[in-house]
Every structure is written in C-alpha cells, then in structure tokens.
UniProtKB/TrEMBL annotation:
Pfam families named in the record: Amidohydro_1 (PF01979)
CDD domains referenced in this protein's UniProt entry, alphabetically: ATZ_TRZ_like (cd01298)
InterPro entries registered for this protein in UniProt: Amidohydro-rel, Metal-dep_hydrolase_composite, Metal_Hydrolase, MTA/SAH_deaminase
UniProt name for this protein: Hydroxydechloroatrazine ethylaminohydrolase
Organism domain of life: Bacteria
UniProt organism field: Streptomyces incarnatus
Domain Amidohydrolase-related: 64-426
Keywords: Hydrolase
Amino acid sequence: MAPSAAQRIVIENCAIATVDAGDTEYASGHLVLAGNRIESVGAGRAPEGLQNVVRRIDASGHLATPGLVNTHHHFYQWITRGLATDHNLFNWLVALYPTWARIDEQMTYVAAQGSLAMMARGGVTTAMDHHYVFPHGSGDLSGSIIRAAAETGVRFTLARGSMDRSVKDGGLPPDFAVETLEGALAATEETVLRHHDASFDAMTQVAVAPCSPFSVSTELLKQGAELARRLGVRLHTHGSETVEEEKFCHELFGMGPTDYFESTGWLGEDVWMAHCVHMNDSDIAAFARTKTGVAHCPSSNARLAAGIARVPDMLRSGVPVGLGVDGTASNESGELHTELRNALLINRLGAHREAALNARQALRLGTHGGAQVLGRADQIGSLEPGKLADVVLWRMDTLAHASIADPVTALVFGAAAPVTASFVNGEQIVENGRLLTVDEDTIARTTREEAQRLARITAQA
C-alpha cells in the first residue's frame, strides 16, 4: 500500500467500472490515488480528512475504468501502414518482408513513438511490442523501443522476438533479416538481463518471443522456452492464425500448431499467443488445462481475412484472453479502445451470435484479461485498493454518448470515447485527448519522414 505521506489525487463524481472479480460498479463514486497506488475506490464522495491532497478532479459526466492493456503489437509497422491492403496473411508477409527487412534504429524508434502515442491517447496504460525483425547492422532496436515507451510514460512489455528460418530454409523472411539460432538466443538473454524489471510496479518487462512456427526453427522454440524459464520471464509467439499455418504445421511437423507448441514446451501459464483463430475443441481444452493465454486481435484478423477466433468458447473453458491491436500494417488505426467494440461485434458473427460477448465482457478483455495474459493481474487491470494507479477517465456526456444510460454500454457499443485523463503509475500522461509527455505533431512529422525514407531505400534495393 502507498505510504501515509504519499501525495494524493482525489477523483470524484464519476461512474466507475472497477472490473474486479465481482464486476463492482458505482453510478457515482470516487477514487483516491496515493503515490503510484490506488488507495481507495467506492461510492459517493472521497473520505474526509485526507492528507497531502495535491489535486481534486470533479469527474462529473465521466466513466472511470482501469487503463487498457494491449497484449500484441508490432510497433515498427507504423511506418508501413496502408500497404498490401487486399492480401491474406502469407501473401501480406511476402509483400512486406522486403520492406521490413530494411528498418534501422531510427526508423524503429520513430515508429514506436507513433504506435505508443496513438494507443496512449486512446486509454492504453500498459503497452506491449513483439519485435522480431533484426536486420544485420540495424543498431540497438530493442533499446530504441524501450526508450520510446519510457518517454511516452506507459507501462511496457517488450517481447523480444527472433527469426532463424529464412527463405533459404523454407521460411518467408529474406536471408539478411534473420538471426542465427545462437545469435538470437544470446541477444534475447542480453535484452532480458539489461532491461527486465520483476518488481511489483515495474515500468519495463521483457518476454522471450520467437516469431511464429513458420519463421523459426524447432530448436529456437525449444531453447527459447528453456531460456525464458531459466530467467523467470514470460513467453510469447503467434499461433493458429490462419488455415495456411495449420497446413504448414501438418506438412512440416506432422501435427497441428497446438500439438506442435506443446511438443516444444510452449504451453503453460507463463505463455500467451497471438490470434489463435483456428482452434478446435481439443486445442481450446489444452490451452485451458495449461492456462496458456491468448491475445485476441479482432481488427487484424478481419483485415487479413484470417477468420473469427472462438473467444466465447475460450472464456467459458477458462482460457485467459486479452485484446491486441496487432501491427499497424494490418490494423491501420492502431487504437485499442476500438478493439473493445470490434471484439464484441465480430464475435457475434460467430456461432454464438448475440450471446457471444456483452459490453462488460469486452471491457474485461481489454483490462483485466490483458493483465492476466501479461502475468500482471495482481498489479493492474482492475480498480482496487493496493493496485497500481493506472486509471482512465472517459468523457461520456458529449453528443456521442450522452443519450446512452449505461456508461459501460456507451463505451463499448458507442463511438470511440474521448479520454479526458489517463494516469499511469499515478502520473497523468493524457489530458483532454492530448499527450502530455511527448509532442504529437512532431511525431506525426517524423513518422511520415521515416516512412518515406524506408520506401526510398526499399525501392532502390
């Protein structure tokens, strides 16, 4: 808990969706932030006699929720948006890998700034990046991404990715864009040792994250899992995204993706996978049995025509599920709050129809569910005393939402709600929809410049 001498911020007169175990909500309540912790949350006004109150916020007309938690992304893709817009996954990768293989440290840093800024101004307080493209001689890409996250002020998990199966090995990436098995493992270990913080209020954590079954060797998966468990960090990869991946695994390994992952040590409560669209009953049961998590990316799955993930079945089976933006070359908006709505709507096109997801389940996916799959549910993902002060105030009294009586329904079913304030670790990073930590206009200019530079380099090659 926060020390009694901590400076306090009092937020009052707002609707509150705590997303705690009982889905406790208050039609009009208060939050007290003490230092970087939530000290109290409840109905009515804040307690009288609080010491060291440095700010009081009258949040009338607002909904307070936990900060959104993004569980899958590829920041570098911010500078390759709007390309290959009519492709399925494999053809999209073939079209874009020659461009991605030419990124450098400056491009990666600027792209990370753009990705982070877009998410943060839309209510994301914990971000994640799965970076797996490390062209030879491209510089300190991991360090540049972590630096951008620190400057933006969000809590951050870097999933240090890797690829060692290139075109010459039957994979998709160009030969010069992959690492050796030994090089990938060594660089990943160095990144964990240099940057991972295991403390309760950590702002930066690192996961071990070979890219996918069709871009890494079996040995990289096996040794990557051993490395992660030796270092005490989590594991992340892509899994069961498309029918083509399913076919690839059967042809190359003689089994489907889930069985292949289990054979390499890649199921467990310390693992989460992106997409998981093509999962049969046996696959879902294996994920539920092992508590393997899923990053559901509804917009990207639709953009690449991958299919509809069986999220309702996963949830009913006890599989931890969070939401992901995915890379912005397959989700050009790059906003997680729109994924609340898309997750609900797209899953209602599946077998369960109108019973698939409701508004509160969608909000839980984007908050507590994301915290679960990142291994941080004890610290973030709900508004409870003792948890970290990651809080978003959504304005619900404008034209877009004012006539919807239930604020959670308004947030999920309605238009993207304005963010009046977003706090991370007790520090405000957004005010009235604008970032306080970085200059959005500068980022817009530099991302455009780096996108143009990358396009020129690719064209010349």
